[in-house]
């Protein structure tokens, strides 16, 4: 049997889904980078790795200037909605989110959905 190569997901999946300010898991049902790489490498049948979104998920993509205003570099860690809002000093609005990001179309927490004004 051929050994699968371990994929490199640096810059694509965070090292941890824990909010770097309060520690809450922003993505229950998602694997962090190292575990995702291992899971994909072990997926010899090429069935993929299931990631789930639910009412606790706070995965999103905001515009670069919002992330920068929070004091973070791209892929600089995860922030829950509450901690991001504390850092920027205001409540997020739908205009703060990247319009064409698939992450902003997924199910999420009530406060995330409220900020995105999910359609």
What characteristics describe this protein?
single chain, 119 residues, mainly alpha
Can you give me a brief rundown of this structure?
This protein is mostly helical. The chain is 25% helix and 0% strand. The chain has one domain (33-116).
Written overview of the protein:
The N and C termini lie far apart (46 Å). This protein is an all-alpha fold. It is built from four helices and no strands. The mean pLDDT is 91. It has helices at 33-41, 64-69, 81-88, 110-116. The longest helix is centred in the N-terminal third of the chain and has 9 residues, at 33-41. It has one domain. Helices cover 25% and strands 0% of the residues.
Q: Overall pLDDT, averaged?
A: 91
**Unreliable segments of 5+ consecutive residues:** none
How far apart the termini lie comes to 46 Å
Alpha carbon gyration radius: 15 Å
Structure classification: mainly alpha
What is the strand content?
A: under 5%
Major β-sheet profile:
none
Domain count, please report it.
Answer: 1
The succession of helices and strands, N to C, reads: HHHH
Could you say which overall geometry the principal axes of the C-alpha atoms support?
Answer: globular
Question: What fraction, in percent, of the residue positions are helical?
Answer: 25-40%
Discrete helix count:
4
């Amino acid at each position: 049997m051929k050994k699968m190569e371990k994929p490199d997901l640096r810059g694509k999946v965070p090292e941890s889904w824990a909010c770097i300010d309060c520690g809450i898991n922003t993505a229950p049902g998602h694997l962090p980078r190292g575990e995702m790489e291992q899971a994909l490498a072990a997926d010899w049948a090429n069935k993929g790795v299931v990631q789930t979104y639910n009412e606790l998920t706070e995965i999103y993509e905001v515009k670069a200037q919002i992330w920068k205003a929070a004091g973070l570099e791209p892929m600089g860690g995860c922030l829950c909605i509450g901690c991001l809002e504390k850092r920027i000093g205001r409540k997020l609005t739908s205009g703060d989110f990247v319009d064409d990001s698939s992450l902003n179309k997924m199910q999420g927490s009530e406060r995330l959905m409220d900020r995105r004004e999910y359609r």
